[in-house]
Each structure stands twice: as structure tokens, then as C-alpha cells.
Amino acid sequence: MTTDQTTNAAEKAPEPAAAPAAPAVDPRLLVREAGFAGYLAEFKRKMKSGDLGSVPVVLGLILIGAIFQGITGDFLNADNLTNITKWVAGPGLIAVGIVFVLLLGEIDLSLGSIAGVSAAIAAVLSVRSGLNEWLACLIAIAAAVAIGALHGFFFAKIGVPAFVVTLAGLLAWSGLQMYVLGDKGTVNVLNDGVLANLDTYFLGDGDVAFTWGFAVLGIALFGAGQFLDAKRRGDAGLPARPMSEIALRTGVLAVIGLVAAYMLNQDRGLPLPLVIFLSIVVITDFVLRRTSYGRQIFAVGGSVEAARRAGINVAWVRISVFMISAGMAALGGLFIASQQGSADKLLGSGNVLMNSIAAAVIGGTSLFGGRGKTWSALLGILVIQSIITGLDLVHVNQAIQYMITGAVLLGAVVLDSVSRRTQKSSGRG
């Protein structure tokens, strides 16, 4: 055989088959297969990489409770804790709306003014014009949603920065609030009306069965949801939580829920503001985590260009988020009016907006977009309101309260920045 023939034969010889590539394994599956030891190792890894989650907030709440209870002896009394669960509803609902905006990496400075003008519209229509209170509240919320759509339009379609649009809105809607209220500047809500009952109503008129039933129902729904989700993922061949983890999660929630129910029943029972606030947090969390619309919000917050290339209507997502945030601000304004018994020119001003933004950031929502959840609003506003209530119990003046709240907000932003930098350095950013 000639050299050329040998070369041609070698070239025609079939190459040995490559070994099949090992299938990729989801790291979450490895963690879950390792049991609790795997979760402990994963938790340590997250802490080292800067993914702190809700740990700082939970530790902060425990520390705040311990400090103020030690100083006053009354902070953990049932009546004080009940008042905290009522007072968080107004700013907490505004914070839920802020979470949506922050997920886009934007800010809305007008939400305090929107809360004020919404409360003014509802109070004036129901008290001065004699309109049905339910209808007046719905008109106020609809007006706020329209304001949010206007902000979103200028931001998404015209290209005006959100900071500028909402700063202009802060001034404009504060002026509208004063105009609606008129020369007197204050409208007292109707006694025992819809607005008044938002803050003062307790389900079942203080019947302990309502509080226990609400707690048990929430625990049961959470456990069932976790089980069904694990079953669905398992049937699809996806990583799923083992029953041991589901039982642990449900057990922890059960302890928290039942202890909270016991403490509330030592006072007046289950407050309506807490029920509405928790319900909205759960609903909005489902929207963000379980719907395609929620995933689109995270996508736009992560990278606008990538979201656009993926076929997402970026302009609509942006406009709709500002509509949601304005609607939440309106609802929060109605609760604040109920708590103070009136709608006035100062409602929504002062530290209302700053406390709501601080709540979202302290709870774990990133100022840089793409990371957060509505539970952040709940955890964060509990921290803020606990600090405010504790300082009131020790008779600290408002100036000092502002400085302390500002320091807490700065600390949360610094922690967020350091966390992001740590995650990037560890390859997780």
C-alpha cells in the first residue's frame, strides 16, 4: 500500500465516539439530597457570599424588642403589639408599592403626596358631598392609579427620568391635595363609617376564635401550598423540597402565627388593618413569584435591553408598575386617614414616604433593581414601626426619631451595597 493510500485510509477511519457528556445537575437538587446538612452548608455559603436574605431584619427585630422591653418593661405587652400591627398598615401598603418600583431600579418620590390626595378625595366626596363611602374610596384609588399611569407614561414613553417625573408629582399632587381640602384644610372622617372602621374594627368584635381561625387557616394554606408545589415539581422531574423541609417551614410558621394569635387575643383580637395588609402582601408576592407578569418585572429590573430582546413590552411593564405603586399608596393613605381620624394637608408629608422607602430597603429589596419581594415591606415596616413605638415609649422627641430612622436607612443601603459587591466577587452577582 502506498503512502498516499495509507494517509487516505487513516483520514477515512472513523473517529472513536466521544463519551456522552454527564448531564448537568441542579445544585439545588444536591443540597436537598444532602438533607439538613446540605441546607446548613448552603446557608453558610450564602452568608459568606453576601446573600444575607432576611437574616439581618429578623435579628434586628429580636434586638429591638429586647432593648425596648428591657428599658420600658411595656414594649412586649399585648396592647402595644396590637397597636404596632395596626399602625404598620398605612406606611406598609405604600412600601409594598415601592417594592414594585425598586424592582425596576427606579424610585417614586410622589407616593406620599398620592396617599394624601387620595385620602382627601375620599373624605371630601363622602363627608362634604354625601357620596357613598365605598364609592368615594374606589374613586380615590382609581384617581391614584390614573396618576400612576401618567407618571409611567412620561417615564416609559417620553423618556423623562422617574426621579424627575415623581419629584414633579410630589409637588403637583400636594398642591391638588390642598385644593381639594379647601380653606379649612381638614376633613374629619364619618364616625363609624368605612374610613373610620379601617383602623378601629376588630374581626368578630374581639372574639378569640377569629384570631385562632385566621392563624390556623394561614398555616394550613401555607403547608398545603408547599406540599402541592413540591409534588408538581417532583412529577415534572424538577428539584423539589423534601417533606422534612416542608414540615420544618410549616412548623416555624405555626409557632410564629400561633404566638401572634395568642398575643393579639390578650388584647382586642384580630385587627382589620393587619388582615388587609397581610392579604395584600400574600397576593402581591404570588404575582411577583408565580406569574409571567412578575417575571417580566424582574427581567426589566435586571436588564432593560435583555428584556426587550426577549420580547417583553418594557414600556407597559414600567407604566403598570407605577400604576400599582400609586394604587398601593392610595390604599395606604386611606388607612393613615383612618388612624388619625381625618384627611388633612399634612397627610402623606413628613416622614411617611421616607419610612416607606426605608421599610422596603431594610426588608431586603435592592435599590439597584432586580432583587426583592413584597415580604420585604412587611419585615421592614415592622422594624421601622417598632423603633418609632419604642422611642415614643421612652419619650424621645421627633427630631431624634428622624435621625435614628435615617441612620437605620443608611445602614440598610450600605449593607445592600456591600452585599452586592461581595456577591459579585464570589461570582454570584
TrEMBL record:
Q: What is the lineage of its organism?
A: Bacteria, Bacillati, Actinomycetota, Actinomycetes, Kitasatosporales
Q: List where Low complexity composition bias occurs.
A: 9-21
Q: What is its main location?
A: membrane
Lipid biosynthesis among the record's keywords?
no
Q: What is this protein called?
A: Xylose transport system permease protein XylH
- Read off the Pfam families from this record: BPD_transp_2 (PF02653)
Q: Where in the cell is it found?
A: Cell membrane
Q: Known CDD domains for this protein?
A: TM_PBP1_transp_AraH_like (cd06579)
